[in-house]
Amino acid sequence: NIAAIHLVPKETRLTLEELTKQKVYHRNQRNDWGTPPELFAQLHEEFHFTLDVAASPSNALCHQYYSILDDALTQPWEGVVWCNPPYGHTVIDWVAKAYTSAQSGATVVCLLRATPDTRWWHRYTPYAEVRFIPGRLRFVGAKNAAPFPSCLIIFRP
């Protein structure tokens, strides 16, 4: 699930071949990382997701999804929602939307970097279930495992 894409000027974009040759932590041109299929399959079996809020037509993990063109942060998140948002400064907006959507009745499962030293973590995780993922994930399209720990933040109604 490649999340919404941060648009980079064409002259600074790397080709897919260049991106796949770089290690994960050198790919600062990207903030979207595809969900490992095994992880999603395991979680889908548990949660039965109905909406992927950070997808594209080529990588959506649910029949219903929002792409970058849909601007998921302005759309309603209802049902059982999968969210692997862009990893960057906007993550707080995605977590806030997950929290408010749960207040309106949705169940939202977010795949995020485990960053308990951030403001958003202290503001929102007290209202969520947190599951730390052992080891380091290898995201779709990456040759190496991520250089950071990951977790699931689960907001329920």
Topology of this structure?
Elements: H1 16-21, H2 37-47, E1 51-52, E2 64-65, E3 80-83, H3 91-103, E4 107-113, H4 119-124, E5 129-133, E6 150-155
Parallel strand pairs: 1-2, 1-3, 3-4
Antiparallel strand pairs: 4-6, 5-6
Descriptive terms for the model:
globular; 157 residues; disordered N terminus
Low-confidence region ranges: 1-14, 22-29
Structural class: alpha/beta
Radius of gyration: 15 Å
- On the 0 to 100 scale, the average pLDDT is 85
What is the succession of H and E elements?
HHEEEHEHEE
What share of residues is helical?
10-25%
Strand segment tally: 6
Categorize the overall geometry. globular
Per DSSP, the total helix count is: 4
**Which percent range describes the beta-strand content?**
15-25%
Distance between the termini: 24 Å
Largest sheet: 6 strands, mixed
- Which strand order spans the largest sheet, edge to edge or round the barrel? 2-1-3-4-6-5
Task: Tell me what you see in this structure.
The chain is of the alpha/beta class. Helix content is 23%, strand content 17%. The chain has helices at residues 16-21, 37-47, 91-103, 119-124; strands at 51-52, 64-65, 80-83, 107-113, 129-133, 150-155. Strands 2-1-3-4-6-5 form a six-stranded mixed beta sheet, covered by helices on one side.
Give a summary of the structure in a few sentences.
By secondary structure, this protein is α/β, with parallel strands linked by helices.
